[in-house]
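dumping this here before i forget
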Amino acid sequence: MQYRTDRAGNRLSILGFGCMRFDRARGGIDLDKAQAELLAAIDGGVNYLDTAYLYPGSEAAVGEILARTGRRDQVYLATKLPHYLIKSAAGAERMFQEQLRRLRTDHIDYYLMHILTDADTWARLTGLGIADWIAEKKASGQIGQIGFSYHGGSEQFCRLVDAYDWDFCQIQYNYLDEHSQAGRRGLLHAHEKGLPVIIMEPLRGGRLVELPPQARHILDEAGGGSPARWGLRWLWDQPEVTVVLSGMHSPQMVADNLAAAADSVPGMLSERERAVYPQVVEALRQSTKAGCTGCGYCQPCPAGVDIPGVFQCWNSLYAESKRAARHDYVKCTLLRPRPSGAAQCVGCGQCERHCPQSLPIRTLLAAARRDLEGAEYRVMRCAVRRLHLWG
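structure:
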């Protein structure tokens, strides 16, 4: 494992464990599976774990796993405050104490304002006394480092970086998003200000792993290796990147990512290797219909639409097998207690208000419906309804 330091001199593993997408079992997170994966990562040198108040069951799962295995002192815990749900510093304090209870700890090493959107939002929070609250928490040792996670444009990101003496920040960044969201401009600005940068969505929610054939062919021609390894190494090649978060769902994924992190250092890529990425990006752009990362912030939909599932099938329709994509769409939207296809959308727009990618979800759902819900699908939908599978 390679390590990079933060402003306080802490050595952080370049590979962090993103705990948003633990696999689930009946009744909640599959704790035994999550524990096996988490411990394998920690034993391999990972020391940065990222969760959040709003990740269903995640904080409690991480807390239980660390408590029952005695690993709390081996890791740095990062979690996030949903500032958009609070109206006072007292409200922040109540949520923070709940997080301590969930995580079974007396302090949070890296605490973030979750999805801080712009400098005006931060000004509103300071008006509520959040800056003073943070100062008290840091002085007491209950918060180690303070930062923010961000989805948005580079201009507002740079303004946010300049608005407060942050200890670190977290951005979505990968070779597909090099010049979108905070982008490389934001990465460099944060680095110039001395901020460690934590990377989320390094593989675009799996989009840079499940590559369409034409993109995979480019990597094979360039020497092979897994798409995930190509994506992670692109990030670790950059000295401005501190930690790359990965949601690891299997022992093999943990092992593969640990192997990639073992020898990844800034400047390791050759010019020939760097030239491969723009070719893959072009192949991806030709086959991507919806830039959804599958984060799930748009869920639950009031009308029951499985928005990430619809978009995954829609992208697959153009990138992979059309037959397989249509078959998956039937399973994703019809073989459930309630229909969850694009046709269920009522246009309320709630999803768009929560989407970190600022996608025009309603417009995209309408297009996905035209492509995926043809005559054969409608016949199957009527058949399922007649079988009373929806009550």
